[in-house]
Every structure is written in C-alpha cells, then in structure tokens.
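quick one before i forget lol
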Amino acid sequence: MHPSTDFYYTIDREGEAEFKDRGSRFLAHAFPLEDPVMFKEQWQKAKKLHPKAVHHCFAYRIGLDGTQFRSSDDGEPAGTAGKPILGQIDSRNLTNTAVIVTRYFGGTLLGVPGLIQAYKTSAALVLQTVPIIQKTVEIPYELQFDYTRMNDVMQVVRQYQCRVITQEMQLFSILRIGVPKNRLEEVLYRLQDLRNVEIRDLLPK
C-alpha cells in the first residue's frame, strides 16, 4: 500500500470458513482490525472457543504504510501457516484485516507442502466470504470554534463527506473529524474562510 493513495481496501465484517484435509480441520475466521490490542482479544477468544485445537495460526496487516503486520505459525513448522495466511491478505491488497486459522489435528501428518496449501486455502476461502470494500484515506483534524459557527462548520463537514470522530459542545465547541485525503485542500480552504475557527492537524509528527 503506497502512502500517496487516496483509498484502501479492507473487509467490512467478520467471516468464517472451514477446510478439511486428511482428517485435519482448519477453521478460518476473518475480521476487520484497526488495533493490535483488539487482535489479542480475538485470538484469546479463539483459544477459548476451541480448547482442544492444536494450533491457532494467524496473520494481520493494519495501517496504510504497509509496515504494521504480524504472522504466527503457533507451533507449526516455520513458514507453513502465518506466511501463507498473510500472503492471502496481501494478494487481495487488503489492510486493517486479520485472519486466524484454528487447526484440529486429524491423525495424519500433512508435511510442509500440505500445511502451506491447507493454511493458504483456508485463508483464501474465508476471505471469499466477506465483502471487500474501498475506504477513503482520512486525515484527522481538530476544529475549535465558537458554537455560533456550528452550522457553517457542519455544512463543510457534510458537503465534503468528512467523518465526525468526536464532538464536544461547550461555549467553545471541539470537533475532531476525518477529512478525505482527496478533498483535503478544498476542505481546508473552506474552513480557513470561516472566521473564528481554529484548525489543528492531528497527524503524528
């Protein structure tokens, strides 16, 4: 994913799929993810749901610069599970997406090529069950203004389809918004045109 793009692809809901090979069952679970902490909760949930399963392998990618990702073989031979799962996420150019594949061992060893194929297929199957959506890359901004400017500010927010993240209404209102990257110049131009509206970029410096 290149930082200069205006859009990214992700999944918009959870999905489940099952793959069987020589007695082993592979249960795949895909879900949207924006935060590694949330991933840990989902992984613990999978382990509780399937206490008799032998492996809970996974991969996820989050963020827009392509650097935030993790994969785990969870006791399977190195490179046979996490990487093939991540490969399926990447082949669809997805981000903010996680897949956990839980394996129940069926008594027959599948060997390295068999395992790679099984985890790859499980991840591919589950990603086929969930809609892939295109989302706009947003730049976070904080606006501070006198509450009398509320209508003018909200008009700009609605016109350019900015997302309201948080809103605090007092004598001075504080609005945090996600501005679509491809409309940023227009939005800032319109907001700077409004009197008594303070604009602050929330991107980490």
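fyi Residues 138-201 form a domain with the Alpha-Beta Plaits fold (CATH 3.30.70.60).
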